[in-house]
Request: fold
Amino acid sequence: MSSAATRATDRDHLWSVTEHLEDVLATVRPLEPIELQLLDAQGCVLVEDVTVPVSLPPFDNSSMDGYAVRVSDVAGASEEFPAVLTVVGDVAAGAAEQPHVGPGEAARIMTGAPLPPGAETVVPVEWTDGGLGEGPVSGMRARSASPDDATGQVAVHRGAEARAHVRAKGSDVKAGERALAAGTVLGPPQLGLLAAIGRASVRVRPRPRVVVLSTGSELIPPGEQLGTGQIYDSNSFALTAAARDAGAIAYRVGAVADDAETLRATIDDQLVRADLVVTTGGVSVGAYDVVKEALESVADEDEEGAGIEFRKLAMQPGKPQGFGTIGPDHTPLLALPGNPVSSYVSFELFVRPAIRTLMGLEDVHRPTTTATLQAPKALTSPAGRRQFLRGAYADGQVTPVGGAGSHLVAALAQADALIVIPEDTESVEPGTEVEVVLLG
Reply:
């Protein structure tokens, strides 16, 4: 059978949501790994385990500002009978050399500084007179203002057990241990850990570049004055934000008028910076559905595997969908319906998993749960269609938000879940357990 005949057969086939998603995910492949500097790797997925080359912390160090001492020298110390020790110097964080602490001696030590040789424990400065010969102090004076505080004597008013207030070498992670596993998404804590163990770069799958464009001569950018028959372009903003939320680097393209050649040229221009293209609008059966007109001609011209197929799915909203690859690199393209709710639901079901697959993640789907339906009356659903209704989820219950109309943007903004009504269900009574897709 020719490719054109195959596509004609596909157009006559009513695809299930599962079939369409499986086809998308079977086509999309994770991006090739690259080596990136740490900050450039934020949001990316590790492709290999990272092993700790040096223990954290790399040496025993103090967790307090205070005095490094021997345990026996401060045993039984009190405010009435303090242990008076000779201060032999300072140990600052980053200091290359430390004084040796012998019997009857103390070294003034700062948080993070190495425990000096001879010392067995750390006494917080608040347990001492700070070398001032008076009562307990609340802190140390700045060295620049009082350099003599690193010498003289200090009265210790409380004893300390061995290794009190000491962070042991390797107490965080030890050399040779696994710091991060392959598949980890690199956020601020993970990047901090990589820096702490001395890694300047890592091997990751890059964040996918997603180009989003909407179609329609009636669309104008927010901020301009509406003319007769015009509406603001909301889809491209919502889906660009959704792509970024999914982990992509997303580019929004201004709305394209209802002209097939213009649309083709625009998409061709964008392929240089796209790992995935998402369009909204123009995929139904109207005379001005230019996405279908423009991209079906691409499929007819290509006999080497690329091409866009337009399908009818057994779902509501979002029945008309387009999917395939385009351009010399066979860049995946998903063509979504133009109504805002249809567009957003389609993104969550199909585009978001595609983005997460490009990133190399194993779990690409939104979490799902079951919830008790709270509604004033039964919900109805067309036979043979999987319906996705907007809902508000809390404490194991879900309440429908707005109606079933695919243009109700205000209701969509109040929803944090999708209520799923299966294909074989035409009515759902209040109090029934339903499947819920959690959106965030």
Remarks:
- The two ends are 44 Å apart (CA to CA).
- The first strand starts at residue 14 and ends at 15.
- The mean pLDDT is 91.
